[in-house]
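Limitations

Structures in this collection are predictions, not experimental determinations, and the ligand pose is part of the prediction. Treat each record accordingly. The example that follows, with fe (iii) ion as the small molecule, is included so readers can see exactly what is and is not provided: the inputs are given verbatim, and the output is the predicted complex.
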Amino acid sequence: MTTTSPATPLTPTPSHTIGPFYGYALPFPGGPDLAPAGHPDTISVHGYVYDGAGDPVQDALIEIWQAAPDGSLDGAPGSMRRDPVTGGFVGRNGIDFTGFGRIATDKDGRWSAHTLPPGARPGHAPYISVCVFARGLLNHLFTRLYFPDQAEANATDPLLSSLDEERRATLVATVEPNRTYRFDIRLQGEGETAFLDFV
Amino acid sequence: MTEISQNDIDKAIAHKREEYLARRAAGAPVENHPQRDYAPYRSSALRHPQQAPVAVNGGDPETVELHTPVFGVSDITEIDSDLTRQHNGEPLGERITVSGRLLDASGRPVRSQLIEIWQANASGRYAHMRDQHPAPLDPNFTGVGRTLTDDEGRYTFTTIKPGAYPWRNHTNAWRPAHIHFSLFGSAFSQRLITQMYFPNDPLFAYDPILQSVTDDKARSRLVAAYDHDLSVPEFSLGYHWDIVLDGPSATWIEEGR
Ligand SMILES: [Fe+3]
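Predicted complex:
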């Protein structure tokens, strides 16, 4: 069968909520551990997801996707390698950087991941792309985690510089000891995270 | 707390639908996705942003979100797409084959990408600690599958037909039978999580999650079609469901120049 592009675009399949019961299906061992084990450049990123009442969202799923340290966007397979003998997960190979991570929030609404600093090209600040799914969220949300110690690049980044100070601040993590960055996500209300729509 | 009845939910669903039809009559575009602010699905109340999303122009092919994670044969085992063979015995229920194609909005196949599914068993119970529905668990069915699309964007799962199940949105709330699908495209901006339904389910009209897609045509795209050619003799009934991803990708921007 040959595939030809139709003259008019196809209409998309609608989104639906991830619901409450994805936990035995989507998270995988090593999902939060993008950095090869023991890599000296490893950074930690973590934060909480809050709802409009300020309560932790205990059943959110966070996915992160980013450039490699050299700025490459090619990614690599092997985020969720399987064991052909037992059918279980064997984890990442500890060498390749796949750029992809998946983390379910815990009872405190908290997520954390270990990764390598993303590269960026001139005129753009480095960032980690973040996708949020949750029960009660009928269509996922995209946002970005920018780094507070990249002030110069952040100042000229096209997205950050298009936002007012309050919204911009929701996209910039805060720095903590031991190469750690904190990035909270507020789905609604005061301090609501700036969410993105790709057009 | 006052009880919320199906009748209350029906009225709220009808109200959201009238609002949408009024928007359409005033010239607003078709809404292919649910509004995140959809009161009949009560969990959405505190979990939808109140500010409009920031539009990011996808015209720049170096944008991180116009590229996507890669999955390969090492991320899959052969048995992952057959949910009836993951245990020592045969699961209970009606065996089905679900197959279709994963396409982008311009109709091109999305090749070698990961599709993940999860579902309740034949009696409507998830193999999840927090599912308290007192229907039996099936020791021969977990309800998790994954596969990679082929060169035509095609996927196939062998599973059993999930049962309907009750939930706590309101009194006597029941979800129509559905399979949860997670999909990656050729761009992270095309990421999609959704649910596939079965034709002619009498619960459709009562379900605020399905009805959150207020456009009739859009909603109908979530329902698979019975496909006799996909039925396997003496084994399973076939359902066909194609999935079309939304959003820009780097490849189509480059070709569009
Ligand atoms: Fe479900």
